[in-house]
Every structure is written in C-alpha cells, then in structure tokens.
Amino acid sequence: MKTLKKITFVLGLTLGSLSIIAQQEPMFTHYMNNTLAVNPAYAGSREALTVTALHRSQWVGFKGAPLTQTITMHSPLNNEHVGLGFSVLNDRIGPTNNTTVVVDYAYRMNLSENAKLALGLSAGASIFQANLNTLLLDEEIDPAFLNNVNNRVTPNFGFGVYYSRERFYAGISVPYLIENRYSSKEKLDGSLLIGKERRHYYFIAGAVINLTDDLAFKPTTLVKVTAAAPIQADLTASFIIMQKFLVGAMYRTGDAFGGLVGLDITDQLHIGYSYDWSFGLKTSKYNQGSHEILLRYDFVFSSKKQIHSPRYF
Predict the structure, then answer these.
(1) Domain range spanning residue 295?
(2) Which CATH number characterizes residue 95's domain?
(3) What is the reported pLDDT for 135?
(4) Domain assignment present for 14
(5) Residue 311 lies in a domain
(6) 3-state SS string over the chain?
(7) pLDDT tens, residue by residue, 13-55
(8) Count of structural domains within the chain
C-alpha cells in the first residue's frame, strides 16, 4: 500500500471527507463497561462514584493507527433522581489529535421497585489538531494537505435515554448532535473538500441470565448508525464465573472479531482486557490486531450505602 493511500485511509476515519465513508467516533470492545462515553443518561446508575479508565491501541503495527484513551467518572447526588458525570477522551490518528471534555447530567425516575428510566444531557467541547504539512506524500503538491488545523475548538451537545433493571438494560443516544466542520477548501479540480463530523446514533442493550449458581450468561450489543455508512453492530457473548471472572467473545459486523476477559479483584475494583482482529479492512494484513485494557473503581463514601455485589452493568 502506497504512503498516500495509507494517509488517506487513516485521515478518512477522522476528517470524514465526502469521498471517504468511515466510522469517525472511537470504537470500544469494552463498550458495556464504558457506557458513559456513549450515553449521558448512564450517569449515576451504579449508585457510587465510579471512575473508569480505558486505553485502546488499534491496529497495532500499522503506522499512524488510532490510539484512544478515556477517563470517565459519574455519581448520583444526594437527590437520588440526579446523576452527574464527567469524561475526557483523547483520540490520536496519524497526524491528527482530538481531545474532548464532556459534562453529563441524568434525571433518573423509578418506574417500579426494580426498574429505572433515565434521561440524559451532555455538553462539552473538542480541541482538534492536524499537522498535515508534515506528511510525506506521493504527490509533491496536494492542496488538501498544505495547511494545518491548529487547536480548533468546537462545542457540542448530546442526549440519551437509559432504561435499567438489575439484570437488563437498554438505551439510545446521540452523544454529539452538532456536525462541526474542520476545513473547507477548493481543490485544484474545482471540487470541494470538506472535513466534517458526522452525527452518530447509538443503541445499547444487555442482559444477565443465570445458568447455574456459579455461571451466568451475559449477552450485550452496541449498534452504531451514521449517515452514508453501513449500520455497524457489536455483538458480545460473555460468561460470568463465580460472580468474579468474565470471559467472552465479540463480533463487530463487517470489521472484527475477538475476545475479552475480566476480573472483579474486589467488590469495588474491576480490570478487563480485550483483543480483536480486523478482518474486513485493507489494514488487516498490515497489523497485529487491537488491544484494550480497562480499570474501573467504585468509591462509596457513605456508611449507609452498601456495595451491591455483583453489579452487572
């Protein structure tokens, strides 16, 4: 694969120009443990101050491949109907880097003794950088790569709905409503090149089914919809052993398959790891797959609150 083709493919994931159709927002194999990153209505749902850190190295061995880190924290307030969240996401792809800071608000309603419905809103901003003129191109002069994008700050807003029970959840969300533009330049052939965000729609769902006293089945899914791109679904089937160990397999339609493991070290601390391999992209022969590691901790400050174990979502 030539240098320019590699650069164009990678940049297409970020800039989303009219000539390239791609998923723009970061993907996570641990989406079921990183729910606040895609749905603000999840804030406060674990009844503790929950801090989650995740690192994803995608397409290892492929130059300029995505590197993504997220840190999220959320908690219910003394008012049991309100949850607040805060998240930072950093996504680096090739010569581009996008850092997003978001504040989440959720209003939680008790539908019954065991069922809750939450409505969420989010507000934040992104800082986007692209050092395009540092690239080595096959063509000496390409107007699309002459100018950098330096610390472009763009605001955004999102919303979500989240329904949950002890052993089931489902939600829909649009984390970023505004389709911000990063560049708009006239090419030499007269066509218009536009670097523009695309609005993404998410559907999440999951359940836990007891098979025996020491074995439970946990199916989950994340469906992503965006304009001018195929619908993509993550399908994950996991087994929880002795309420502490998790092992599972995942399939991402048209893209990847892999596996994940997890361990509840204590009632409050969880660690997870996943590996997935992209089979549907031209990059598959040039990389060694994608790795992801996750840490989550639940802080409980009130002696009146007890850790409900296990907490599945």
Answers:
(1) 3-299
(2) 2.40.160.40
(3) 60
(4) yes
(5) no
(6) CCHHHHHHHHHHHHHCCCCCCCCCCCCCCCHHHCHHHCCHHHCCCCCCEEEEEEEEECCCCCCCCCEEEEEEEEEECCCCCEEEEEEEEEEEECCEEEEEEEEEEEEEEECCCCCEEEEEEEEEEEEEEECHHHCCCCCCCCHHHCCCEEEEEEEEEEEEEEEEECCEEEEEEECCCCCCEEEEEECCCCCEEEEECCCEEEEEEEECEEEECCEEEEEEEEEEEECCCCCEEEEEEEEEECCCEEEEEEEECCCEEEEEEEEECCCCEEEEEEEEEECCCHHHHHCCCEEEEEEEEEECCCCCCCCCCCCCC
(7) 444 433 333 446 788 999 999 999 999 999 999 999 999 999 9
(8) 1
